[in-house]
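hiii so um. not sure if this is the right channel but i have a protein structure encoded as tokens and i wanna go backwards to a sequence. like what aa goes where. can anyone help
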């Protein structure tokens, strides 16, 4: 107890009279300088009068000195606030004027002594009040040079600041009870105006634990103004779990993005939305991301592009599956949806809560075995998968605004990332459910009214402003994604520029992906084929001269044989199955040459018509056209004397028999591929 009391006494300056005296002296010390200054001026006036009383030369010198000191005080105080600068100038002017009068006329002559006794204490007290007010506001003077006052936040304080190359960060404390972080966010344009900087150079990152504290970030020089060309992938042969480098930030640091999750880092897997107006550099942003993906060893990509691969043709050999827009994209969406539960089931059976690089390798670890006995199963690995839909507005118009909702909500746990690229991700094009399931966004220049469709409100409040660029700065973007520090969300970046000189490197990268990239695992491939059938054939093998996606594969040539060499008769192939001893069938209506008013050709019987219809579905499937409707049978109906209404009824029957599935669009049906053994799908009998 005695030691505790001694510590309290020591902390409070001691006990008794000596303790009180020490406390008062410590409290009075900050207020003594103005009074000491006033006393010093009085003493100087008395000594000066003894030497220069009545001297004309001294009068001129003292007058000039007084003016010089007053002007110097005003100029020296240029970096101080306006009030402090004016206060200093008034104090200096009054003190130097009184000193001049006291030296020449005497300290007690006329009103000189009265001015000293009244003005000296008044000026000293004014400085005491200033010191007291500053101490009551936190004991620290604002270091903003009057900036906060200019933008309407006079009581805000800028505290500790740290400087980095081309980046300054200052801690801001707003006035408690009267100012919030929202006030600071709304003042960012005025700060940019006060500092004569572009709006994108000033950002504010609120403190998540405080409503009135945050970091003000200022980037004085735009390092993105210089265009940097793409020189090749950043990590050829690396894992898709490693960061993808797609450009640089305005302070020169790399612009990174991750697709798979990482439980150790607390990062979730993600889908990506690429949004930007015409001319904003959306194509270059997509090429940056795609070339990074295709350069990794444990990932496959399926790709839809309604623009016929205009920007991406050099990369075609590297895709696992590439289609154009319309019906082929519709089939791809359905196929990816079928692959998601199959992949999730495989990952669960091998004890993976989410996709990790180890899942892409052969499963030799007993901890990830699907066998009940716990021994290593040796199953083939499952690479990560990217489903990319370029110019997705076309697919959304064709399929409906919720076309990607199922994939967006379920695919992340299956090791699948969905990438959607379009100009305006408004809610009249993309459903709210799909948009809310896209955690990552690359937001390029756009119309100011479209900023809210691309970026979260808190990022816009922090200073992000893609509408300021529009199409004037191609490649400028903001990236919001798991794994990126939140204070980077409002920092602009710029993607690498792709020029015609990059085509050769892109072609070499696609060849590398063919030879060294991952192929679709059996589970994923089977799931895709269960929907797409022959439309999905996997990545073409290198050096095979495979045709471009969507081009029919020619049938193998049949070697010609000379019938005379074998001693046989020359018979037309159509007549090879005719038995010459069998009687000819009875004539049927339409077998004869048509006459005026009579239908040409023979109309098939109901049983024959259904057989021909089933054969037509097989032909569509073999050609890779997996979505059909009555309009696709127009020529077929004309050839077989059948109506479009008859075809519509047969399509409904095929749906009931399991040969077709619904697509969500009236009059459109998706063909269900036949089993691998080729067994037929029975249709309703006549």
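sure thing!! here u go:
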């Amino acid at each position: 107890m005695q030691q505790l009391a001694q510590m309290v006494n020591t902390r409070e300056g001691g006990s008794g009279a000596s303790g009180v005296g020490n406390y008062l002296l410590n409290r009075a010390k900050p207020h003594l300088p103005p009074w000491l200054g006033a006393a010093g001026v009085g003493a100087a006036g008395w000594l000066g009068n003894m030497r220069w009383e009545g001297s004309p030369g001294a009068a001129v010198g003292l007058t000039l000195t007084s003016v010089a000191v007053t002007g110097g005080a005003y100029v020296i105080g240029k970096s101080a606030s306006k009030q402090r600068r004016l206060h200093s100038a008034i104090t200096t002017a009054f003190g130097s004027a009184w000193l001049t009068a006291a030296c020449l006329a005497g300290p007690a002559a006329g009103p000189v002594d009265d001015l000293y006794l009244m003005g000296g204490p008044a000026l000293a007290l004014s400085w005491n009040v200033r010191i007291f007010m500053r101490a009551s506001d936190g004991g620290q003077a604002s270091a903003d040079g009057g900036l906060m006052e200019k933008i309407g936040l006079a009581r805000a304080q800028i505290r500790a600041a740290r400087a980095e190359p081309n980046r300054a960060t200052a801690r801001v404390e707003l006035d408690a009870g009267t100012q919030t972080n929202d006030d600071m966010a709304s003042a960012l344009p005025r700060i940019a105006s006060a500092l004569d900087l572009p709006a994108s150079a000033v950002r504010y990152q609120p403190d998540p634990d405080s409503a009135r504290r945050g970091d003000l970030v200022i980037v004085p020089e735009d390092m993105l103004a210089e265009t940097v060309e793409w020189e090749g992938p950043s990590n050829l042969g690396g894992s898709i779990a490693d960061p993808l480098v797609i450009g640089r930030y305005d302070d020169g640091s790399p612009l990174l993005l991750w697709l798979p999750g990482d439980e150790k880092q607390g990062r979730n897997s993600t889908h990506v939305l690429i949004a930007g107006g015409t001319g904003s550099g959306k194509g270059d942003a997509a090429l940056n991301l795609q070339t990074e993906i295709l350069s990794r060893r444990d990932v496959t990509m399926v790709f839809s592009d309604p623009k016929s691969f205009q920007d991406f043709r050099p990369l075609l050999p590297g895709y696992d599956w590439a289609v154009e827009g319309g019906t082929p994209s519709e089939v791809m969406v359905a196929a990816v949806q079928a692959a998601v539960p199959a992949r999730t089931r495989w990952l669960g059976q091998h004890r993976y809560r989410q996709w990790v690089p180890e899942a892409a390798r052969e499963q030799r670890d007993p901890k990830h075995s699907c066998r009940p006995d716990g021994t290593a199963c040796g199953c083939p690995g499952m690479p990560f998968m990217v489903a990319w839909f370029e110019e997705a507005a076309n697919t959304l118009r064709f399929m409906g605004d919720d076309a990607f909702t199922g994939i967006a909500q379920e695919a992340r746990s299956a090791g699948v990332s969905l990438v959607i690229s379009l100009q305006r991700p408004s809610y009249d094009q993309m459903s709210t459910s799909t948009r809310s399931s896209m955690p990552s966004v690359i937001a390029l220049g756009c119309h100011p009214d479209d900023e809210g469709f691309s970026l979260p409100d808190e990022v816009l409040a922090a200073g992000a402003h893609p509408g300021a660029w529009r199409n004037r700065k191609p490649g400028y973007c903001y990236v919001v994604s798991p794994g990126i520090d939140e204070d980077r969300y409002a920092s602009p970046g710029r993607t690498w520029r792709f020029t015609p000189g990059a085509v050769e490197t892109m072609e070499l990268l696609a060849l590398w992906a063919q030879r060294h990239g991952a192929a679709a695992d059996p589970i994923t491939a089977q799931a895709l084929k269960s929907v797409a059938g022959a439309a999905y054939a996997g990545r073409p093998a290198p050096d095979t001269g495979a045709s471009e996606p969507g081009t029919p594969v020619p049938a193998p040539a049949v070697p010609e044989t000379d019938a005379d060499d074998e001693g046989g008769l020359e018979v037309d192939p159509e007549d090879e199955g005719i038995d010459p001893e069998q009687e000819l069938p009875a004539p049927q209506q339409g077998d004869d040459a048509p006459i005026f008013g009579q239908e040409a050709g023979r109309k098939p019987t109901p049983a024959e018509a259904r057989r021909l219809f089933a054969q037509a579905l097989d032909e569509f499937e073999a050609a890779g056209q997996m979505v059909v409707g009555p309009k696709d049978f127009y020529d077929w109906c004309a050839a077989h004397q059948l109506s479009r209404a008859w075809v519509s009824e047969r399509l409904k029957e095929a749906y009931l028999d399991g040969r077709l599935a619904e697509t969500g669009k009236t009059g459109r049906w998706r063909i269900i591929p036949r089993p691998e053994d080729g067994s037929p799908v029975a249709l309703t009998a006549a």
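oh and Residues 112-136 form the longest helix (25 residues).
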